[in-house]
Write a structure and sequence with these properties.
- The structure is a single chain.
- This protein is of the alpha+beta class.
- It has two domains: 3-205, no CATH class; 227-380, Four Helix Bundle (Hemerythrin (Met), subunit A) (Up-down Bundle).
- Helix content is 50%, strand content 16%.
- It has helices at residues 19-30, 49-52, 69-80, 94-100, 113-123, 140-148, 175-182, 207-238, 242-255, 259-280, 298-309, 313-338, 343-366, 380-387, and strands at residues 3-8, 39-46, 54-59, 62-67, 88-90, 103-108, 129-134, 151-157, 160-165, 188-193, 287-288, 291-292.
- The strands form three sheets. Strands 5-7-1-6-2-8-9-10 form an eight-stranded mixed beta sheet, sandwiched between helices.
- Strand 8 and strand 9 form a beta hairpin.
- Helix 9 (242-255) packs antiparallel against helix 10 and helix 12 (313-338) packs antiparallel against helix 13.
């Protein structure tokens, strides 16, 4: 999600300038995140909402601009509450504050909800902070305010920062800002050329392009969500403990701070595939095409299941490729751990393993012509209470 954080540039805590104190505080909060995993461009600048309310009138000697206050109030309403925004953390009187003060913005192009909430909570104790808003690039107002009017400042990849320069004029490299960021605690700080991106020479720097990308992101998110729903809905019938195992793997990933903890994520992914395979094709003493199908040979059993249940050659090819990809990913993760690779690099690999596990489970579902046979985990404790004539009420959770 694209998120903008807003600050009152006219707060009385600023003695001289407001830009550097705000940037220093914001980035010091960002790098405090104990499991920081991020890859985003950062845009900064004033919220030029007044500019959108200026109307140009043709006169004899050219044109003149006039401010339309009624239009301005309408713009602020659509700014605060665009139709597609799902996340907002603002002061109740934010519109009045924006009307009366200069507002400085730090906009992160790509962060997850967990990090957005973390930053919002951390910034609560910073008096100039006014709140955050998910940016909707399908809104012309948001695109102008957070893309067209803001300055591309830097790229952050985990604890590394690349300070942008336009790539056209060497003098646009700001050495003073490079030194400023080096003092904030980033692991590395270096210049990165934009090669003219976000300038008049950039053909894709337009609202129409941004709208298309934003709509794609929304639809893709829905597609991935639907895949996850399908996995749980279909496979939990025959593998009733799947939901618990997926939840545990995700929670381990979110909470992991060390390589060892992230390695547990990859182990959990392998066990999830083993568990599902055990449920749909239990171990046997037999062989298929010379391959053993015992307890340890879950990959052989998965491919044997695919051969048995195939609906088309295309699906069989897909399941084979996905299985090989998962094995290669697990091997790679094991090698990375043995080499002592830093956590921030390893975390991306663990994330890919989680995603590929979900996709592999979806592939397994695609091979089944009909529904999976339902199996349940017997509540033995409840059964025992029935047999011993004890209390058999299953109460609802507290609401």
């Amino acid at each position: 999600m694209k998120v903008a954080f807003h600050f009152n540039a006219e707060h009385n805590s600023f003695d001289e300038g407001y830009v550097l104190p705000i940037l220093e505080h914001f980035f010091s909060m960002l790098i405090q995140h104990r499991t920081l995993s991020i890859s985003t461009k950062v845009f900064i600048g004033d919220l030029l909402s007044h500019n959108l309310a200026m109307e140009r009138e043709v006169v004899e000697n050219g044109y003149k601009k006039t401010f339309n206050n009624e239009k301005y109030l309408t713009i602020l309403q659509y700014w605060k509450s665009p139709k597609n925004v799902i996340w907002s953390r603002f002061e109740p009187d934010i519109i009045k504050i924006v009307q009366d003060n200069r507002i400085f913005v730090i906009c992160l192009e790509n962060i997850d909800l967990q990090l957005a909430e973390f930053l919002h909570q951390k910034l609560q104790n910073f008096p100039p902070y006014l709140g955050a808003l998910e940016v909707d690039d399908t809104s012309p107002i948001h695109w102008n305010l957070y893309t067209l009017f803001l300055h591309p400042e830097c790229r952050i990849i985990d604890s590394n920062l690349n300070l942008f320069w336009d790539g056209l004029i060497e003098d646009t490299k700001d050495e003073s800002m490079l030194q400023f960021y080096k003092k904030l605690g980033f692991k590395t700080v270096a210049f990165e050329s934009l090669e003219g991106k976000y300038t008049l020479f950039d053909q894709q720097h337009s609202f129409e392009h941004a709208r298309i990308v934003a709509e794609w992101k929304k639809q893709c998110g829905s597609l991935l969500s639907n895949i996850a729903d399908n996995v749980i809905c279909s496979l939990s019938d025959i593998a009733p403990d799947l939901g618990n195992k997926l939840w545990a793997a995700l929670k381990t990933f979110k909470d992991a701070e060390t390589n060892e903890q992230l390695a547990q994520v990859t182990t959990s992914c392998r066990r999830i595939i083993e568990y599902v395979t055990d449920c749909i094709f239990p171990p046997t003493n037999g062989e298929q095409e010379g391959h053993k199908l015992g307890t340890k040979e879950y990959r052989n059993r998965l491919l044997a299941y695919a051969d048995k249940e195939r609906q088309s050659n295309t699906n069989i090819d897909l399941i084979v490729v996905s299985t090989e990809m998962l094995k290669e990913q697990l091997d790679k993760l094991s090698n990375l751990l043995n080499k002592g690779v830093h956590t921030e690099i390893y975390r991306h690999e663990a994330r890919r393993c989680l995603l590929r596990t979900i996709l592999l489970l979806d592939d397994i579902i695609s091979l089944k012509a009909d529904v999976f046979k339902i199996k349940i985990k017997i509540d033995s404790e409840f059964m025992l209470r029935i047999l011993t004539n004890r209390d058999t009420d299953k109460t609802s959770p507290n609401i």
